[in-house]
Design a protein that fits this description.
By secondary structure, the chain is α/β, with parallel strands linked by helices. It folds into two domains: 104 residues, 3-Layer(aba) Sandwich (Rossmann fold), CATH 3.40.50; 188 residues, 3-Layer(aba) Sandwich (Rossmann fold), CATH 3.40.50.1100. 37% of the residues lie in helices and 15% in strands. The strands form two sheets. It has a six-stranded mixed beta sheet, with helices on both faces. A four-stranded parallel beta sheet has the order 3-2-1-4, with helices on both faces. The chain is globular.
Length: 314
């Protein structure tokens, strides 16, 4: 999915003279962006250097190698915060040794919004002017944020629902860890500048087991083989659609299911029926709890860190 974002970003850098063909573009990724940037670099004659998360699998590593990308993977870790810190530290080491490299900063540079404008225009053409809500996982924030901004230029009433894992600082759930696993590609242990919190109307937080149920149901019901972030977005959109049937809900399927074959789809017999699952709506971030929580965000700004919220309540 991020191919449109990475391609437009690289094209913009070339057009503005920020980089030239043959230069090295560097960034960190949990998988999808790595492949997208490698494709863009291959297209425009750039070199690509990726610092990858522990979640990057053999299939993706092979694809990156074929595309000529240099890939470094972090040591195995179940700790998202540690994994991200290691990747950022390695980026800084490389830049110190190679200041001529261009750091793409997918999580912080809003050039990654550019490519989604054309996608939003196509969505508008196909969905018309009726009530519409976009549902998607929030990682870097570029896909959901860019689509909502552009669609609201056509129709100001377009809604936006963000999907998060527990344990993420992005929308204030870092105090509720998920004991099972990280949902790759969404959430973060560090703030991302590309996330514009004031765009979101509603937030959903889903645990691993709930997202697993969504991914399995999506494959069984519609033959769509997609990853955990997609399963979480699908389950969210499905529930919201049942609550408001007069509205169109468009959910973003950001990733395929290949890297989840063993950890998710091989466990399909343990998946709860999608029809039996529903979120618990909460009024404050302090009330967030597994397995699935929902909150009216009302386009509020970024939340205060947990420590700050705790001091305020004393």
């Amino acid at each position: 999915m991020k191919a449109v974002s990475a391609t437009a970003a690289v094209r913009h850098l070339l057009d503005t003279g920020a980089v030239r063909p043959g230069d090295t573009l560097l960034d960190s990724s949990s998988g999808i962006y790595a492949y997208a940037l490698a494709l863009a670099c291959h297209r425009y004659g750039m070199r690509c250097h990726i610092i990858g998360s522990t979640t990057v699998d053999h299939t993706l590593r092979t694809q990156l190698a074929v595309l000529g990308a240099e890939f470094e993977q972090m040591d195995p870790s179940d700790d998202l915060k540690l994994d991200q810190k290691r990747r950022v530290a390695r980026i800084h080491e490389i830049l110190a040794a190679h200041p001529e490299y261009h750091w793409m900063r997918q999580y912080h540079d809003d050039i990654h919004y550019l490519g989604y404008r054309a996608v939003a225009d196509r969505i508008h053409e196909e969905t018309g002017t009726g009530p519409l809500t976009v549902v998607g996982g929030v990682g870097s924030g570029a896909s959901t944020g860019a689509l909502a901004r552009r669609l609201r230029e056509h129709s100001p009433g377009v809604g936006l629902i963000g999907v998060q894992p527990f344990g993420s600082v992005t929308f204030g759930s870092e105090h509720v860890p998920d004991p099972d696993i990280i949902i790759a590609g969404i959430g973060s242990s560090i703030p991302f500048a590309n996330v514009d919190h004031t765009l979101y109307d509603t937030l959903h937080w889903l645990g691993f087991g709930t997202a697993l149920a969504g991914s399995v149901d999506l494959l069984r019901r519609y033959a769509v083989f997609a990853g955990l972030s997609t399963g979480a977005a699908y389950l969210t959109a499905r529930w919201e659609r049942n609550r408001d049937p007069g509205r169109t809900f468009l959910f973003i399927a950001a990733d395929t299911g290949h890297r989840y074959t063993d950890s998710v789809f091989a466990r399909h017999r343990t998946a709860q029926p999608a029809d039996s699952l529903a979120p618990r709506t909460v009024a404050t971030l302090d009330d967030l709890a597994h397995p699935w929580s929902r909150m009216n965000w009302n386009r509020a700004p970024a939340p205060a860190p947990v420590a700050t919220r705790e001091r305020r309540t004393r």
